[in-house]
Design a protein that fits this description.
Strand content: 15-25%
Distance between the termini: 13 Å
Radius of gyration: 12 Å
Helix content: 25-40%
Largest sheet: 4 strands, mixed
Number of strands: 4
Strand order of the largest sheet: 2-1-3-4
Shape: globular
Length: 83
Amino acid sequence: MNRVIIYTKDNCQYCVQAKNLFNAKGQTYEEMKIGADLTREEFINIFPEVKTVPFIIIDGEKVGGYDRLVEYYARPEQHFLAE
């Protein structure tokens, strides 16, 4: 299994969709919630180029948000998830 980190915040529908996709695929992930696990300022300092959540990192690759996650899994070489 790959190491997945997903940065989220409360009341974020795309965050919920991304976590649902991971759960449906059997992929474990580490959730880092802005406002609980780190502050908004800490998130901005770590990722100054990122403006929205969810923000997803898979094995060190900055995938991006939910739409980019769907595109990531559509790649032919991405076969690590249990279907």
